[in-house]
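Sequence only, no structure available. Ideas?
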Amino acid sequence: MKEIIAAEFENEVIAGGKVVLDFYSTECPPCEALAPKFEGLAGLYGHQIKFVKMFRQQNKQLAEQLGVKSSPTLLFFDKGVQLPGMLSGGIKRSDIIHHLDNMLSADQVNEIKGKIKPVVTDFDVLILGAGPGGLTAGLYLCQSKINTVLIDIALPGGHVSTTHEVSNYPGFIDPQPGYLLSHNMSEQTKLCGTSYKVAVDVTKVDLEKKEVVIDEFETVRAKKIIIATGTSPNLMGVPGEKELKGRGISYCATCDAKYYGDKEVVVIGGGNSAVEEADFISKFAGKITMVHQFDKLSANKQAQEKLFANPKISVLFETEPRGFKRVGDKMVTEIEDLKTGVRSELVSDGVFVFIGMKPNISLFKDKLELDQWGYIKTNEDMRTSVPGVFAVGDVISKKYRQITTAVADGTIAAIVIAKELD
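Reply:
I predicted one. Tokens follow.
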């Protein structure tokens, strides 16, 4: 695997045969989560396909020429031709493998797959998800000398790691950068002795057998499972959103705001996330137009006051997006005035979407009792409807979802489990 700059692009990529190119950024949790997957796959496929990386912030012009609008982005080339299907955002290992396999012959793929040997590992407790709830549970369990593993498809921290500033976590006088708060939580749990298997693909979850398969070859078994899988951003489901995700539409201000210096941006949403992230984006962008479906924002009053005092930001109330398209290097957002029904267009350089979250339960939703919104039901001990399976954090059914409430959930589950395994 090699790091290159734009001046080396012709020799290393265009004339490089079969190549996969990773455009990454700093302060980008999805980039950090991709790095070990990229390195591991380079070890498997590297004798057939060249793996190269490029720092997007220092090679902006080439990135834009290649249509890179989000970090990270993987591009695939064969004999100088860019292949269809770039990958961006929270990239799965399985999706990379699918693209790599399509670049090779069946015999070459079989040879590579033959090198992968199944592995089985055993723990007392398996925590699925390394946000604040999972990290706290891991901390309490390792302090109880219980053999525990944390598994996550990304790096530790959850949504906190992509939040630019946290002002309401007890114990800190000054607001804390989200990535730093996440880092400190993670390091505390890791130093205590909890094992980490992060930035992996979760292939299969069997709650009855207490088994989780990661990266298609390693089976992790445990006596108890704590589900702490959190939530993911909601999609709007309007025309153009899926096609332009990572190509002008972003869901991570920390990852992509830095590329909109003095440019115009549209922000969709009006809750705490939308308001706080719009304020962060304004440190880079020259103009921000917020689009919100209701007649007032739902963010906390302090955040609203800060937003309304920001001359770069304006808000279109009672307005919803109806579609997106790209015209040249511009994003066009079709919006509808909900009072009049009149539709118009907003032209910008990029769009950020913050319209709430949905629970990450796809791998086990049919096995657990859920509430009407799809969140996992638990009792006061954080037990789910499956014996030996607990759930904590944003993924469970509750009224308030905050870092502090996730930490409390993780504490309760760990104490209950520790007493049972003692």
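The two ends are 46 Å apart (CA to CA).
Hope that gets you unstuck.
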